[in-house]
Amino acid sequence: MSVALKKEAVVCENLRIATDIYSMWIKEPEMASTAKPGQFISMYCSDGSRLLPRPISICEINKKQGALRLVYRIAGKGTEEFSMLQASDRITVMGPLGNGFTLEGKKALLIGGGIGIPPMLELAKQLSCEKQIVLGYRDVTFLDKEFETYGSVYISTEDGSKGTKGNVLDAIRTNGLHADIIYACGPTPMLKGIKGYAAEQGIKAQLSLEERMACGIGACLGCVCKSKEVDHHSNVNNKRICKDGPVFYAEEVEL
Amino acid sequence: MNTSVTIAGIEFKNPVTTASGTFGSGMEYSEYVDLSKLGAVTTKGVSSVPWPGNPTPRVAETYGGMLNAIGLQNPGVDVFIKRDIPFLRKYDTKIIVNVVGKTTEEYCEVVERLSDCDVDLLEINISCPNVKEGGIAFGQDPKCVEAITHELKKRAKQPIIMKLSPNVTDITETAKAAQAGGADALSLINTLTGMKIDIHRRSFLLANRTGGLSGPAVKPIAVRMVYQVANAVKLPIIGMGGIANAEDALEFIMAGASMIAVGTANFVNPTATTQIVEGIEAYMKKYQVEDINELIGCVK
Ligand SMILES: Cc1cc2nc3c(=O)[nH]c(=O)nc-3n(C[C@H](O)[C@H](O)[C@H](O)COP(=O)(O)OP(=O)(O)OC[C@H]3O[C@@H](n4cnc5c(N)ncnc54)[C@H](O)[C@@H]3O)c2cc1C
Ligand SMILES: Cc1cc2nc3c(=O)[nH]c(=O)nc-3n(C[C@H](O)[C@H](O)[C@H](O)COP(=O)(O)O)c2cc1C
Ligand code: FES
């Protein structure tokens, strides 16, 4: 795998696409040329009081333009700072980081929950098999229209304002969806549910996990998750989400 | 121009090393940094058997710093010897191995195993705030510090650096105790015990509740402690705590540190270590300093 770079990227556009949700394109040709769906980048704040980089998934890759798209939610001061960037501003980023999804299967279920939806977009673009895309929201939807180009889209909302009332598994059951592989990213309780569902159906699932990070490259051991097998790095049952993940097969990890 | 420094008879090409636990054994950062450009690489703490560490969340950001409660996850000394030492020996740099334990016996076991190994110095972490037994408990009581130093000194073939805790009223007391126990050098500071509360969830942010504070926020405390200890004992000091650039490094050197270690700054800037080496050289050129040793403890 190629070395992740730390570079200054140029912001091409940064638009608000829903309440507190922003879509940013940045230009960094070298990163764009090696990036894979499911990988992430570390974004640095310009305010020195906020030291640690913010991990944000790659939502889309445009190799021709040498650009990456990031879709993020304002969660605190760092993402708020990013939301104020404008075209031609610069931002320091490091990446691409992590392993990314492995493209496989004949009939896939792509499942995204909340701010776990963005990384599924580039995956949907690159996967050539039959795709059913399930998107779970609390209430307001975003990116759902963009997914329609790549497969059939099923929506669940917690408040029932759109699609199936409930969570992504309710949408899968209501619509009678079946697949031979699952790709998923979203909050841990959702991933836990999907892990159980995949085991029950006897199908493989690739899950993208999240944890608080410091280094982002596998050195600090801040971001581990419990793994079934002894990891090669520390010889205990801990895998590093930033380096060994963020994507794991469901049976590899305990949630 | 001479940038080399000597600690316990061992010469380092320059005074820059890495802070234990922030650089692994250099593998991850070797993609960003030519390890041969560093005076030494200090490894993550290693124990006699593999340690799984604490539950997550293990890290949290704070104003100008961070809290960590990794809990010394490591593969154990056997894997370390087989894998990490041969890796580091490929580079032209000295190897400092950070040693941890829960009991004096466990520290002794690791030190004995490493005694026959091709490593240059041992740094004894008696100051980790994130493990209940051992760690900080040893590091806060001067009597314990002296006793454990004495025990380890008997067993180690390499020089021994005792890494001191800042979580004490008077750091010169533990420094003197380490000296009395026969330590060859001192490292300071380890992290300061801190806490962060998530006001939205009304809970502790770290699973361990408390964590160790590091980064620029701790630098003035670290510089003060290095200065105090440098004036209280004869041992050479490896100074650390919030060093992010050459200016920070020079502060520590002028306060009395013979070497400095770069920790949290690696997370912010993966090439911080080599940039600091270059920055120190640039400073020496600018002020026509022939020998870095002239700067060590020059501020009285
Ligand atoms: C692999 C990965 C991919 C991610 N992808 C996306 C994405 O595509 N879009 C998106 O909106 N968010 C994503 N997140 C979550 C995002 O990293 C956090 O929302 C963001 O770091 C919050 O920063 P802040 O300064 O706004 O919040 P603050 O709460 O002020 O941040 C303080 C510290 O906590 C960390 N932190 C806070 N929340 C999280 C979190 N949920 N996960 C990890 N660290 C956190 C920050 O990085 C920072 O170090 C991802 C997280 C991971 C681990
Ligand atoms: C993530 C992390 C892990 C650490 N692990 C260790 C360790 O294993 N052994 C040790 O002696 N110190 C450990 N430390 C302490 C550092 O070596 C150093 O003393 C401290 O972070 C202060 O330096 P800094 O502000 O430059 O990071 C750790 C620090 C951090 C941030
Ligand atoms: S964030 Fe440092 S190991 Fe993953």
Automatic annotation (TrEMBL), chain A:
<dbReference type="InterPro" id="IPR012165">
    <property type="entry name" value="Cyt_c3_hydrogenase_gsu"/>
</dbReference>
<dbReference type="InterPro" id="IPR023455">
    <property type="entry name" value="Dihydroorotate_DHASE_ETsu"/>
</dbReference>
<keyword id="KW-0665">Pyrimidine biosynthesis</keyword>
<dbReference type="Pfam" id="PF10418">
    <property type="entry name" value="DHODB_Fe-S_bind"/>
</dbReference>
<keyword id="KW-0813">Transport</keyword>
<dbReference type="GO" id="GO:0051537">
    <property type="term" value="F:2 iron, 2 sulfur cluster binding"/>
</dbReference>
<protein>
    <recommendedName>
        <fullName>Dihydroorotate dehydrogenase B (NAD(+)), electron transfer subunit</fullName>
    </recommendedName>
</protein>
<dbReference type="GO" id="GO:0050660">
    <property type="term" value="F:flavin adenine dinucleotide binding"/>
</dbReference>
<feature type="binding site">
    <location>
        <position position="220"/>
    </location>
    <ligand>
        <name>[2Fe-2S] cluster</name>
    </ligand>
</feature>
<dbReference type="InterPro" id="IPR037117">
    <property type="entry name" value="Dihydroorotate_DH_ele_sf"/>
</dbReference>
<feature type="binding site">
    <location>
        <begin position="71"/>
        <end position="73"/>
    </location>
    <ligand>
        <name>FAD</name>
    </ligand>
</feature>
<keyword id="KW-0285">Flavoprotein</keyword>
<keyword id="KW-0001">2Fe-2S</keyword>
<keyword id="KW-0411">Iron-sulfur</keyword>
<dbReference type="InterPro" id="IPR017927">
    <property type="entry name" value="FAD-bd_FR_type"/>
</dbReference>
<keyword id="KW-0408">Iron</keyword>
<keyword id="KW-0274">FAD</keyword>
<comment type="function">
    <text>Responsible for channeling the electrons from the oxidation of dihydroorotate from the FMN redox center in the PyrD type B subunit to the ultimate electron acceptor NAD(+).</text>
</comment>
<dbReference type="GO" id="GO:0009055">
    <property type="term" value="F:electron transfer activity"/>
</dbReference>
<feature type="binding site">
    <location>
        <begin position="78"/>
        <end position="79"/>
    </location>
    <ligand>
        <name>FAD</name>
    </ligand>
</feature>
<comment type="pathway">
    <text>Pyrimidine metabolism; UMP biosynthesis via de novo pathway; orotate from (S)-dihydroorotate (NAD(+) route): step 1/1.</text>
</comment>
<dbReference type="GO" id="GO:0044205">
    <property type="term" value="P:'de novo' UMP biosynthetic process"/>
</dbReference>
TrEMBL record, chain B:
<dbReference type="InterPro" id="IPR024920">
    <property type="entry name" value="Dihydroorotate_DH_1"/>
</dbReference>
<dbReference type="Pfam" id="PF01180">
    <property type="entry name" value="DHO_dh"/>
</dbReference>
<feature type="binding site">
    <location>
        <position position="125"/>
    </location>
    <ligand>
        <name>substrate</name>
    </ligand>
</feature>
<feature type="binding site">
    <location>
        <begin position="44"/>
        <end position="45"/>
    </location>
    <ligand>
        <name>FMN</name>
    </ligand>
</feature>
<keyword id="KW-0560">Oxidoreductase</keyword>
<keyword id="KW-0963">Cytoplasm</keyword>
<keyword id="KW-0520">NAD</keyword>
<feature type="binding site">
    <location>
        <position position="125"/>
    </location>
    <ligand>
        <name>FMN</name>
    </ligand>
</feature>
<dbReference type="GO" id="GO:0044205">
    <property type="term" value="P:'de novo' UMP biosynthetic process"/>
</dbReference>
<comment type="function">
    <text>Catalyzes the conversion of dihydroorotate to orotate with NAD(+) as electron acceptor.</text>
</comment>
<dbReference type="GO" id="GO:0006207">
    <property type="term" value="P:'de novo' pyrimidine nucleobase biosynthetic process"/>
</dbReference>
<feature type="binding site">
    <location>
        <position position="44"/>
    </location>
    <ligand>
        <name>substrate</name>
    </ligand>
</feature>
<feature type="domain" description="Dihydroorotate dehydrogenase catalytic">
    <location>
        <begin position="4"/>
        <end position="284"/>
    </location>
</feature>
<feature type="binding site">
    <location>
        <begin position="190"/>
        <end position="191"/>
    </location>
    <ligand>
        <name>substrate</name>
    </ligand>
</feature>
<feature type="binding site">
    <location>
        <begin position="241"/>
        <end position="242"/>
    </location>
    <ligand>
        <name>FMN</name>
    </ligand>
</feature>
<feature type="active site" description="Nucleophile">
    <location>
        <position position="128"/>
    </location>
</feature>
<dbReference type="InterPro" id="IPR050074">
    <property type="entry name" value="DHO_dehydrogenase"/>
</dbReference>
<comment type="similarity">
    <text>Belongs to the dihydroorotate dehydrogenase family. Type 1 subfamily.</text>
</comment>
<dbReference type="InterPro" id="IPR049622">
    <property type="entry name" value="Dihydroorotate_DH_I"/>
</dbReference>
<dbReference type="InterPro" id="IPR005720">
    <property type="entry name" value="Dihydroorotate_DH_cat"/>
</dbReference>
<feature type="binding site">
    <location>
        <position position="20"/>
    </location>
    <ligand>
        <name>FMN</name>
    </ligand>
</feature>
<dbReference type="InterPro" id="IPR001295">
    <property type="entry name" value="Dihydroorotate_DH_CS"/>
</dbReference>
